[in-house]
Write a structure and sequence with these properties.
By secondary structure, the protein is mainly α. It has a single domain, classed as Rhopdopsin 7-helix transmembrane proteins. It is built from ten helices and two strands. It has a two-stranded antiparallel ribbon with strand order 1-2.
Length: 347
């Protein structure tokens, strides 16, 4: 009897909140995606142009080639375009059709967004790999790109299989596909594992950055306010990205569980799903990555790679007499000047 009562009290259909109509979901999603498209378009033009604050930089800006920064902006722009088309179709028809589902959930969030986020993480790893890392970190630098590459292949393959299945599987509607398709369940599981692994890798990157900055000789020479600003500026994008990836992984795992417990329930129509799995894990990492890679690619020095930012810590073997922490030294000086200007002259 108690088991029956407990079962009656628990309704899987209420877990993700009230259902949203396709039109409402489309309107909200269209506003958010249009905002991201505008920013991505501006940043893409910025990285491919030579104009900065009204002045043309001719000396050290890399104008040619495809770097990680430009690839990330291009993928993000493509994802926003694909998703915007899907949302427009949802608003116009007030329905979730196979076409809009394929564009939005499979191509947009399934392939393009994950690839965009992976490029951002690879960019962070490439910068960290230039530091004087210990043996454990060197193993991470070798292992993490391999894991991300395998996750990208797995997500792309499962998304491709899902796109084929939804059109050739004989399903009457998207709801029928979500409720009965084994391919969809496998895709949910693969995506959840991929995003969880990605979240762990980004969290580890944040820990390595914190350890690297804290070990700098110049770090002890600045005030606590400057230290907080420096650490937050470097680590906050990684923290928010890791949390966003983990949030999406959690909702996908919950959706997979709901497919097993209550196959007839459309877990993907509730407000919780749209907010927790679709909108927040898209907008937050996108903003954080755009902020993190806001600077243009510089012309590579001899022996360096185009598009790789200045190393956090330069190798003492290659630059014995120079300050090996120049990039952070400049940042510290900026913060010290700001603090000095805000203090009374009688200090």
């Amino acid at each position: 009897m108690s088991g029956a009562v407990a079962g009656a009290q628990f309704d899987i259909s209420t877990v993700d909140g009230p259902a949203l109509t396709p039109r409402i979901s489309g309107i909200v999603g269209l506003c958010l995606t249009s905002f991201m498209w505008a920013i991505a378009s501006w940043r893409l033009l910025y990285h491919y142009s030579g104009w900065c604050h009204g002045k043309y930089e001719e000396e050290d800006i890399n104008h040619h080639g495809i770097s990680r920064k430009r690839l990330l902006h291009g993928l993000l722009w493509s994802a926003s375009v694909v998703e915007k088309i899907a949302y427009i179709y949802m608003v116009a028809t007030n329905s979730s059709s196979k076409l809009s589902y394929t564009l939005l959930d499979i191509i947009g969030r399934g392939v393009l967004e994950f690839s965009t986020f992976v490029i951002g993480t690879v960019h962070w790893l490439s910068i960290l790999s230039e530091t004087r890392a210990g043996g454990e970190d060197r193993l991470a630098f070798a292992l993490f790109p391999f894991i991300l590459a395998m996750a990208t292949v797995a997500v792309t393959a499962s998304s491709t299989a899902e796109a084929i299945a939804i059109f050739r599987g004989g399903y009457d509607s998207v709801d029928d596909f979500i409720a009965t398709s084994q391919v969809h369940r496998v895709s949910l599981l693969v995506d959840a594992l991929a995003y969880f692994a990605h979240a762990v890798i980004v969290a580890k990157c944040g820990c390595m950055v914190h350890r690297c900055i804290s070990s700098l000789p110049t770090f002890s020479q600045v005030g606590s306010h400057a230290k907080r600003n420096i650490v937050n500026k470097m680590i906050i994008p990684m923290v928010f990205c890791a949390l966003s990836y983990a949030l999406r992984a959690g909702w996908m795992a919950a959706d997979f569980a709901s497919q097993i417990i209550s196959p007839d329930t459309n877990f993907e129509s509730g407000v919780g799903w749209w907010v927790g799995c679709c909108w927040l894990p898209t907008i937050i990492p996108s903003i954080m990555l755009l902020y993190s890679i806001r600077k243009r690619d510089r012309v590579a020095e001899p022996g360096s790679m185009v598009g790789v930012a200045e190393p956090l810590v330069k190798s003492p073997e290659t630059e014995v007499l120079a300050n090996p922490f120049q990039s952070f030294q400049r940042t510290f000086q900026d913060f010290e000047e700001e603090e000095s200007a805000s203090l009374p002259s009688g200090r």
